[in-house]
Amino acid sequence: MNKDIYILAIETSCDETSMAIIKNGTEVVSNTILTQIDTHKSFGGVVPEIASRMHTESILMVLEETLEKSIIKIEDVDAIAVTYAPGLLGSLLIGIECAKTLAMIYKKPLIAVNHTVGHIYANNLEHKMEFPLLALIISGGHTDLVYMKNDYDIEFLGSSIDDSIGEVYDKVARVLSLPYPGGPSIEKLAKEGQATYNLPKSMMKDSYDFSYSGLKSSIINLVHNEKQRGSEIRKEDLASSFQEVAVEQLLRKTEKALTNYNAKQFILAGGVSANKYIREEMNKLCQKYNIPFHVPELKYCTDNAAMIGAAAYPLYKNNKFADYSLNGSSNENIKIYFEKFNQE
Ligand code: KG4
Ligand code: ZN
């Protein structure tokens, strides 16, 4: 029988300090997520320096709690995994330094995980990923569509050429004076409204790329003009109109991929995939093409270390270890990551 593999994973790329112990890449033994949202809320968004300071303050407490909740001792884990990119550099470095220190003291291999790849592997915590599959990653930092032929064998299809969908949810919420993070606020408000505002659809017909800056600007201008005219904005209707147009683009590109690629599954990932409207619409689309639809449970959609442990497992199996010179990278997106990965 194969020995069980336990990975201690660390995630500090943005405003969640999180650690987890994952068994065989699929089973969560222990998972702790400490979110800083309440602190950043008062600033209307994540303040990078405050995020770094808060990670420093709490990272060892998060480690203690994760180990306390676990049946596995740190001496018995097989590897230490950490998110090294993309994200806020100061925040990433705190997780990386902690991971290196633990790897050195306890003589464990170190595994460097790309955060966006982590979001995809969150799906393995519930349903086994079956290849080939199509994955759409929608988060605060990214909007990426990929075709996965196997573990870490990715064909990149497209991504946003400007703002990510999550960024635009957050921006629109801000313009409407709704609390941070904007995604859940807009989703709630949109349920009470009707899509009565006429907003521009992004075209880019022949590509798998997305674009959200036009939609963002049109909403900023609309709100500005209505204010100048002294007219009242129907916030619920604007939230609903925004959501419909933003999601239409996701559906259109996904439908094109479902038509052109042979996939056993379609998986949704990233913080924005917590959105019920998006889940329902994507599910309907997959039903039309008779392709199983999977999305992680809510707590594994937004940032967490469990998904980093899941993504680290195939790297562990293939002896893809990092050395102590591991550094952070704020902008190494999934496309750059796989270009490098395939060259190694
Ligand atoms: O994956 P994530 O936690 O962090 C990044 O890797 O970026 O995603 C955070 C993003 C934020 O933009 C937040 O507004 C959005 O996910 N989000 C949502 C929902 N919950 C979180 N967007 C739409 N609807 C939601 N329910
Ligand atoms: Zn994320």
Major sheet strand order: 3-2-1-4-5
* Unique bound compounds: 5'-O-[(R)-(carboxyoxy)(hydroxy)phosphoryl]adenosine, zinc ion
Assess the beta-strand content as a share of residues: 15-25%
CATH architecture of the largest domain: 2-Layer Sandwich
What are the low-pLDDT stretches, counting only 5+ consecutive residues below 50?
none
Q: Give the beta-strand count.
A: 10
Helix content: 40-55%
Oligomer status: single chain
Distance between the amino and carboxyl termini: 31 Å
Gyration radius, in Å: 20 Å
CATH domain class of the largest domain: Alpha Beta
* Overall form: globular
Mean pLDDT: 96
Summarize the structure.
This protein has helices spanning 37-41, 48-68, 89-105, 115-121, 165-175, 182-191, 213-228, 235-260, 276-288, 306-317, 334-343, and strands at 6-11, 16-23, 27-35, 79-85, 110-114, 133-138, 143-150, 153-159, 265-269, 293-294. The chain is an alpha/beta fold.
Question: What features would you describe in this structure?
Answer:
It contains 11 helices and 10 strands. By secondary structure, it is an alpha/beta fold. The chain folds into 2 domains: 161 residues, ATPase, nucleotide binding domain (Nucleotidyltransferase, domain 5, 2-Layer Sandwich); 167 residues, ATPase, nucleotide binding domain (Nucleotidyltransferase, domain 5), CATH 3.30.420. It has a 5-stranded mixed beta sheet with strand order 3-2-1-4-5, sandwiched between helices. A 5-stranded mixed beta sheet has the order 8-7-6-9-10, with helices on both faces. Helix 9 links the parallel strand 9 and strand 10. The longest helix is centred in the last third of the chain and has 26 residues. The mean pLDDT is 96. The structure holds 5'-O-[(R)-(carboxyoxy)(hydroxy)phosphoryl]adenosine and zinc ion. Zinc ion (ZN) binds next to helix 4.
